[in-house]
Amino acid sequence: MSTQNLLEIRNLEVAYGQSQVLFGLDLSLAEGEVATLLGRNGMGKSTTLRSLCGLSPAPSGILNGRIEFAGNALAGWTPDRIARAGIALVPEGRQIFPNLSVRENLVAFAANRRDAAAPWTLARVLELFPRLGERLENMGNQLSGGEQQMLAIGRALMTNPRLLILDEATEGLAPLIREEIWQCLSRLRAAGQTTLVVDKYVERLIQLADHHTIIERGQVVWAGSSAALDADHGIWHRYLGV
């Protein structure tokens, strides 16, 4: 495995029971890069993310392959150990705590385990998302969908992750709110935050990411730079249905 990459996934094969979902998937991400994992629904994107975060399937469901993060093989690691190592997932559906306030959601898992010189703090997250500052004492279930998404991203940043993973962070949002999320991701990129994004808005992802991996039926069918993806819209129509 390369020591230059923060994340290395090699030849990953995953099954749920008798149903195999991933077939030899490869993906790598260097420190400070932004990458995407693309594909139509049901092609294995969420399984990849959940396997990376130790959420599913059970260890017996990983048939083959290796996941390394910061030089450590993650096989057998629990989700909380993976999170403490510096991986933060903003899950599809947000999954904030509805009966905690915005403030409580943000500070519940706050940590600076890497002793970052400029860590994410409550004040810094509220600077990124001023709307949350206006709702600080509101319960999570009193927020709009867009505000909940901002809260989910802010909560992940409060762990000061080395790798931030966003699963469909703009799904179902109004265009203006979606634009706020894209602007947030651009600011995180400029700050050097290593990020892996799953989303369907290819035009915006090309502007944001360094490179892209497209999967279909659990296999990598294309990988390359933003320039290469932008130059061949046939790939979009063939594999992304746009």
Task: Draw up the topology in text.
Layout: E1 5-16, E2 19-30, E3 34-38, H1 45-52, E4 62-69, E5 72-73, H2 79-85, E6 87-90, H3 102-107, H4 122-128, H5 130-134, H6 145-157, E7 163-167, H7 175-190, E8 194-198, H8 202-208, E9 211-216, E10 219-225, H9 226-231, H10 233-240
Parallel strand pairs: 3-8, 3-9, 6-7, 7-8
Antiparallel strand pairs: 1-2, 1-4, 4-5, 9-10
Outline of the structure:
34% of the residues lie in helices and 27% in strands.
What does this entry look like structurally?
The protein is of the alpha/beta class. It has two domains: 1-86 and 162-242, Rossmann fold (3-Layer(aba) Sandwich), CATH 3.40.50.300; 94-161, no CATH class. The chain is 34% helix and 27% strand. It contains ten helices and ten strands. The protein has helices at 45-52, 79-85, 102-107, 122-128, 130-134, 145-157, 175-190, 202-208, 226-231, 233-240; strands spanning 5-16, 19-30, 34-38, 62-69, 72-73, 87-90, 163-167, 194-198, 211-216, 219-225. Strands 6-7-8-3-9-10 form a six-stranded mixed beta sheet, sandwiched between helices. Strands 2-1-4-5 form a four-stranded antiparallel beta sheet, covered by helices on one side. Helix 7 links the parallel strand 7 and strand 8 (194-198). The two termini are 35 Å apart. The mean pLDDT is 92.
